[in-house]
Design brief:
The protein is α/β, with parallel strands linked by helices. The chain is built from 8 helices and 11 strands. It has one domain (4-239): Purple Acid Phosphatase, chain A, domain 2 (4-Layer Sandwich).
């Protein structure tokens, strides 16, 4: 079998969407065990209010990931805009390794930059202000000090506000800014970028410093069931049915 690595993003798991949860369980038990590694590029959950919010739903997800890890497949996770409060407690339960917001990996000899992708949408100024605060050292500390019931109410209010704002934003604002893509790829000196967040799965061929480059965008799991499979010789961006 040719060695390969899986990438997934934007599953937005919740107790309300058991179809997506079951699809993930099947993927982790039937497809993922054949991979060299699995990378989850953020927004694994629809909302995450803290590792201390232990319940049967979140524990079932942790158990499924940990079973894969115990089979010998390393699992790496980059925080998204919905689950940036995931900490080491859940990571240990799930058997996943937390990565920085942007990291370059050696993907079968090709240096590849991976990230969630929300940092590329710089035209959404209000969100970028929130993102800076949410990734600070002090704001998560304050949030996690609040009672779970308070955090849950704040999360529900935040999601409602976000949905209302998104409905009024243009596609251009919601998508990545091309110049920021170039900036990030030049900063990390790579010719390949893999990210999620925008829910617009595609493989974009670029020209960067007069050389061919590539931006691969993962889709979500609300409708698309997007999975990226990368080997030394091939890139396969597919969707699975729920």
């Amino acid at each position: 079998m040719i060695p390969f690595t899986y990438f997934i993003s934007d599953l937005h798991l919740s107790a309300d969407r058991d179809d997506i949860n079951q699809c993930l369980f099947l993927f982790l038990s039937e497809q993922a065990p054949q991979a060299d590694a699995l990378y989850v590029l953020g927004d694994l959950f629809e909302v995450w209010i803290g590792d201390d919010d232990q319940n049967s739903f979140t524990m079932s997800i942790a158990k499924a990931f940990n079973t894969l890890r115990q089979s010998g497949v390393p699992i790496y996770f980059i925080h998204g805009n919905r689950d940036f409060l995931i900490r080491q407690r859940f990571a240990k339960q799930a058997g996943i390794t937390l990565l920085p917001e942007q990291v370059v990996i050696d993907l079968y000899g090709a240096p590849t930059l991976i990230m969630h992708g929300d940092e590329l949408c710089i035209k959404d100024i209000d969100y970028q202000v929130f993102r800076k605060k949410a990734r600070s050292w002090w704001w998560p500390k304050i949030m996690l000090s609040l009672p779970i019931s308070t955090r849950r109410k704040l999360a529900q209010k935040g999601r409602a506000t976000s949905k209302q704002k998104q409905s009024m934003l243009s596609d251009e604002i919601m998508d990545v800014t091309p110049q920021e893509v170039t900036n990030q790829m030049q900063k990390f000196a790579v010719k390949r970028l893999i990210h999620g967040h925008t829910h617009r799965p595609a493989i974009h061929e670029l020209i960067l410093n007069d050389q061919p480059a590539q931006r691969i965008v993962l889709g979500d799991w609300y409708e698309q069931g997007s999975i990226l499979k990368v080997s030394e010789d091939s890139i396969d961006l597919t969707s699975i049915n729920f």
